[in-house]
Amino acid sequence: MAGTMNKNYFLYTVTFLMGAIHCSHEMCLDIHDITVCVGNKFIKGIPEKVDGNMTKICFMHGENSEIPKNAFILLTRMEALYLNLTNIFTIAEGALNRLDNLTTLGFYGNRISRVEKSIFRPVPNLVTLDLSGNDINKISNIKFGALLNLENLLLVHNFIRTIEKKNFESLWKLKSLDLSLNYIQSIDDDTFSNLISLETLNLNYNKIASVEDRAFDGLKRLRSLKLRGNYLQCVPTQKFSSSVGLVIDLQDNKADCKEIQSELDIKNNVTIICG
């Protein structure tokens, strides 16, 4: 979780820096251990000024409706690639070719609504994927089948209204799932049961009014469940007695705090935050 927080901190820091300084188009500069390039287009691949030996790079504020095939084939050492606020609608098949060492991939603040399974095949070692701030309305439109090593998935601030068990069939190693700031209204039984390694589940600030009693079945490693800022009037009779050290955040809901504590089947090893 600390790694995810550091990546988020980096993202917002870079965004702030880029807004604070008036960079010219197609400019690159080094910020700590990462190269940040502003205003680039990938029609003919990466800009010549980008050092092919870089391992971390962030492209921002370019007008790229599509990332073309073989866009990054000269960046074979790349471990972290961020394509933030670049107006991406589509990712061509083969766009991520030759990025065998990539472990972190970010597409924050674009217009992506669909990603086919073939897109992720060249990056089987990916650990962190950030698709926050895009136009995704169905998780099923993002094909995760090739990402068998994924541990952190961020889908913050999209247009997701429903989630289904089949959405996460291949993500057995996933440890952190962030679905905050979406439009999810309910959670059905066994929705997350495929996520056997999940430790953190963030559902803050959705529109969740109902949660089925077995919605969180199978999450034996869960340590943090965030449901703050939803419309819950009652809570599931979910059994959390085996979840040692679990913290459940239920602040800013409609349900009464005492009711929440009495309804949940918990023991002293579970902490409820409500108010």
Can I get a quick summary?
The chain is 9% helix and 19% strand. It has helices at 2-20, 257-263; strands spanning 27-31, 34-38, 56-60, 66-67, 80-84, 90-91, 104-106, 128-130, 152-154, 176-178, 186-187, 200-202, 210-211, 224-226, 247-249, 271-273.
Q: Can you name the CATH architecture of the largest domain?
A: Alpha-Beta Horseshoe
Fraction in helix: under 10%
Structural class: mainly beta
Measured by DSSP, the beta-strand proportion falls in 15-25%
N-C termini distance: 25 Å
**CATH level 3 topology of the largest domain:** Leucine-rich repeat, LRR (right-handed beta-alpha superhelix)
Pfam families: LRR_8 (PF13855)
InterPro entries: Leu-rich_rpt, Leu-rich_rpt_typical-subtyp, LRR_dom_sf
Keywords: Leucine-rich repeat, Repeat
Would you give an account of this structure?
The protein has a 12-stranded mixed β-sheet with strand order 1-2-3-5-7-8-9-10-12-14-15-16, sandwiched between helices. The protein has a two-stranded parallel sheet with strand order 4-6. It has a two-stranded parallel sheet with strand order 11-13. It has 2 domains: 1-159, Ribonuclease Inhibitor (Leucine-rich repeat, LRR (right-handed beta-alpha superhelix)), CATH 3.80.10; 185-275, Ribonuclease Inhibitor (Leucine-rich repeat, LRR (right-handed beta-alpha superhelix), Alpha-Beta Horseshoe), CATH 3.80.10.10. The chain has 275 residues and is mostly beta strands. It has helices at 2-20, 257-263, and strands at 27-31, 34-38, 56-60, 66-67, 80-84, 90-91, 104-106, 128-130, 152-154, 176-178, 186-187, 200-202, 210-211, 224-226, 247-249, 271-273. It is built from 2 helices and 16 strands. It starts with a helix and ends with a strand. Keywords: Leucine-rich repeat, Repeat. InterPro entries: Leu-rich_rpt (IPR001611), Leu-rich_rpt_typical-subtyp (IPR003591), LRR_dom_sf (IPR032675). Pfam families: LRR_8.
